[in-house]
Design a protein that fits this description.
Blueprint: E1 4-7, H1 12-21, E2 28-31, H2 48-66, E3 75-85, H3 106-116, E4 126-136, E5 142-153, E6 169-171, E7 176-177, H4 183-189, H5 191-206
Parallel strand pairs: 1-2, 1-3
Antiparallel strand pairs: 3-4, 4-5, 5-6, 6-7
């Protein structure tokens, strides 16, 4: 296996999930910050996959420009994920992290979404988390995978685990919100978990 994976994120919660899911790959996994790459990347793609590719290719380019031999052959991964709510015409979608402004706490974002769904019956509060992951290999090849988890939006926040919109995302098959799942349970069924499992297969095809 290659020595390193650099993941294009600074989100500590996301890195914890990524390391847990990829722990059997026997590879060192670093955030872009840990690899010495700091960049404000414009996510101007039209889809989750396009944004993931933009982030991965940007970080790969910046990492190569550093010329650090410690990262020769490193694989750069990036994800773009978000919450898609059917009754809100797919919002917040690819703008999930930037909804109401990037610095707005997720508790406020979640409260606003719940408020916008006032009066919408339970059966029409359907939603899904979508995650696209892009990998840029040292050869220049770019590969993407995607994972989805279906659910619906609750009427209030429940649970202290997870992050982001997890407390308002009810998972029918589990009978609770994503924030009420254990880390192991969430990684098994989550959009990011599914996308990363698919990416592991792509990595194994390409790494000796």
């Amino acid at each position: 296996m290659a020595a390193k994976i650099v993941f294009a994120t600074g989100n500590a919660g996301k890195m914890r999930e990524i390391r847990e899911i990829l722990k059997d790959m026997d590879m060192e996994i670093l955030s872009m910050k840990e690899a010495g790459v700091n960049a404000d990347i414009a996510e101007d793609g039209a889809t989750f996959a396009e944004n993931a590719v933009i982030k991965a290719e940007t970080v790969a380019r910046l990492l190569a420009a550093k010329g650090d031999v410690a990262y020769e052959g490193a694989i750069v991964l990036a994800d773009d994920s978000g919450l898609v709510i059917d009754a809100l015409n797919g919002e917040p979608g690819i703008y999930s992290a930037r909804y109401m402004g990037g610095d707005t706490p997720y508790s406020a974002k979640s409260a606003d979404l719940v408020k916008r769904l006032t009066g919408v019956p339970d059966e029409k509060r359907t939603a899904r988390f979508v995650c696209a992951i892009a990998a840029v290999f040292a050869t220049g090849e770019t590969v993407t995978t995607q994972g989805v988890i279906e659910g619906r939006i609750g009427c209030e926040e429940k649970g202290d685990n997870g992050f982001g919109y997890d407390p308002i995302f009810y998972v029918p098959e589990c009978g609770c919100t994503a924030a009420q799942l254990t880390e192991e349970e969430k990684n098994r069924i989550s959009h990011r978990g599914k996308a990363l499992e698919a990416m592991k297969e792509e990595l194994r095809k390409r790494i000796p």
